[in-house]
Amino acid sequence: MKTASEHQTRTGSPRQWWLAGLLSYLQPGLGQVYNGQGAKGLRFFGAGLISLAAMVLCLEIGSGLIYVGLFLLFAYLLITLVAIVDAALSARRQPDLFPRKPYNHWYAYVIGVLVSSFVITPLWKQFMQPFFIPSGAMEDTLYVGDYVLADMTPDKPVAGEVILYESLEEPVRMLIKRCVAAGGQIVKIRDKVLYVDGSEVPMPPNAKHVDSAVFSADSRVRDNYGPFRVPSGHFFMMGDSRDRSRDSRYTGPAPLAKIKGKAIAIYWSATLKSDLQLRGWPKPFVDVANALWNFPSLFRRTRYGRIGTIID
């Protein structure tokens, strides 16, 4: 007959479905480990890690492999979703007297979250990062609600590229604009028309003006600006929605040290829905709650035609 102490060492508290799902959201496979399914958890973890590494490699190579990289990104998101659902459902099927495995300790889950948060995520974000477009300054190239993938290892910006850089007014804020001129070049705007080194620069294919009014340089710099020579090591940025963008015309050119990445492609796009107001809650709980809240209407709000659009 087993003693009470022996019975206690072999069983644990009932598995909570929401905790299992949350752990697999934070790191695919961790919810399975929580459920005592270590081998399955390692398979989810390995599949996610391989898809992330292959995605970064394809997007770094660029050219025709960009679409392969986007496919691998969707594969990673699908792996994560399947891991979350599987962990939650498996947790509900576990007995109340859960047969605890040697790795079923709170510190094992903490270590898994820490490895994901401070090793895996920062490592792949050194190469690629997702960004959400919150304003219409780059319409009609980028819309509010677009989710953009950016190469975080760019060379010096080239005129025409869509660049991510730190705001000169709010350093914690990231901006996305189009580079129109580099150090040493002369920028001039006359009646909304952009000139660089004396030559007219055509509007990008999806750029636009939304205000027919033309302001003089004395009243505001939006429509008449310069001539201005861009300092060495700096880059002049403008939004594609020329009348609704606060850019280098107002804040000055961006130094090279502020340049963080180059926008590559739109990997998702959806019209916005208001999030839940959960002030004071931990961010992981808020993210999961908002994801669940928005999910039922996601496919109705998704702009499918924009998914996979290469940004140029």
SSE layout:
Elements (H helix, E strand, L loop, with lengths): L3 H7 E2 L4 H10 L3 H5 L3 H24 L4 H28 L4 E2 L6 H20 L2 E5 L13 E6 L10 E5 L7 E9 L3 E5 L2 E4 L2 E2 L24 E5 L4 E5 L9 H4 L2 E2 L3 E11 L13 H19 L11
Antiparallel strand pairs: 1-2, 3-4, 4-13, 5-6, 5-13, 6-11, 7-8, 7-10, 8-9, 11-12
Helix pairs in contact: 2-5, 4-5
Please explain how this structure is put together.
The chain has helices spanning 4-10, 17-26, 30-34, 38-61, 66-93, 106-125, 248-251, 283-301, and strands spanning 11-12, 98-99, 128-132, 146-151, 162-166, 174-182, 186-190, 193-196, 199-200, 225-229, 234-238, 254-255, 259-269. With 312 residues, it is an alpha+beta fold. It has two domains: 4-126, no CATH class; 130-299, Ribbon (Umud Fragment, subunit A). The strands form three sheets. A seven-stranded antiparallel β-sheet has the order 3-4-13-5-6-11-12. A four-stranded antiparallel β-sheet has the order 9-8-7-10, with no helix packed on it. The radius of gyration is 25 Å and the shape is elongated.
